[in-house]
Amino acid sequence: MKPEKTAVEHGKNHPSTAGHWKLNLDGYWLSMVNALRAGTDKKNWPPLVFEIFLAVSMCVAYYFLVQIYAVGTPNNSTNLWVFSSCSLSNFHLDQLYDCWKGRLSGLLVSGYLFDSAVQNNSLNMPEYNAVFGLYQSLWLFLLFLVVIFALRFSLLINLGIFAGLIYDFSPASGMYLYPWDIPSTVFFTLGVLLFERRQILLMILVTCVGCFFKETVLVCALLLLFVEHWKWWKRFLIFGAVVAVYVVGKKILFAHLHLKVAALSMSDANSLFDPSLLVENIKFSFTPTINQVVFSSAGTMVALLALGWRRRYLPYMLLVVVFIAGQLMYGVFHEFRIFMQILPLSLMILAEWWREYTWPAAVSQPQPTSKPTSEKADTGKKSLNPTVAAPLWSLRETFPILALMTILLAVASVAIPAWRYNSVVEYRAQAMESLTSSAQSGYGPAQLALGKIYRDGLGLKADDIEAYKWLKLAQLQGVPEADKELTNCATAMTTEQINAAEDEVKQFQTPR
Question: pLDDT of 426-449, one tens digit each?
């Protein structure tokens, strides 16, 4: 099977865009066989084995590094709190920030891992540290594999990714390690690589799955506006459909959990724009310190903004600019980990730019009129300019393996959280039933808890009258804090509502 041409400088000669909605399954099996044959060739397997070995080594090092911060640091106790938010033993998703609640896929998986370390209602800390490190390092290994199987000469890129991760451990970054950081980077990178190959259907699938790990993966949907053979109305229609999948899907999920979350939760979700956060981020960006945002992601972000403005990279530069603008308005710039999502993309663009750069001393050198035979055998592809080697961002012939990996990853990323989600919904229903039963039997602390739940609308529909009723009953039982909670509840109610609630209290106290 003749390999397709790879996108080269100025965005010309992209792979054929005919049949965007097809996976070309008739040719995929043959190309898969050819890819496996190429991988078993004696000339090809040593570099591949070395790249995988180095990836394993870096992931092992990262595994032991992140374990230290599984609980957090003296100034940051949220790593454990976030990791366990969807655990059945300590469910508290409703207490997270609104902008975190929508990142449900990673939270469901991490919650399951947290429960595996809970024994006899107590947390086994060594085991928890192990599952925390395993979760982070396995996602990192998957990211390395995506780069290895998608690109040639991936060592530079993977080493750059690891360098960016290590910089995130600088004291200024806060050592925040959340379940959605590396997974969102995997899906974002996959989306970009699939668009580069013009596999639009797979790219849409990856974007729709990845946005439930972190909503910023939706930025990849902007690439749909650059599908050359689509009319503009179709580009905007499919773009809107991808965004709708996230918005509607999030609403459905949280309706089952009885949690109120804004459709597009950004910052504290009180508004779509926070001027104070914007000013704070701008101020931080221009504050001269050693640990500075310009060095985040190993300095690749600034290098990309300086060197990446070429026609070939315009779709990807749009992603970077929109991503940075979003973080500027809604992110926290001193948490350098937020820029990790664009790190692999930045490294791919910079690496290709570097290989295509012509040094001044080379201008006077006589240029060959054609590529050496060995180079043709190595790349398997032709370049527009015979004097320029295939760019670093050229895709391997093993792309069918990456496509298979993409499908398996998407299926696993939907099936595993869905299975866990059903357990969480069932657990919440049982917990509410048990709490209501205890409150109705006259147990004061349960009445206090149920009153607060009705007041805040946590796990069920908010109801001030029911909240007042249970808080009043807890007060009559002499439960601490009931007086304060009852006063706070009454201030938000009308006289008619209070009277109705008092009547319900009397009816509850009347012997049946």
Answer: 887 777 777 777 777 777 787 777
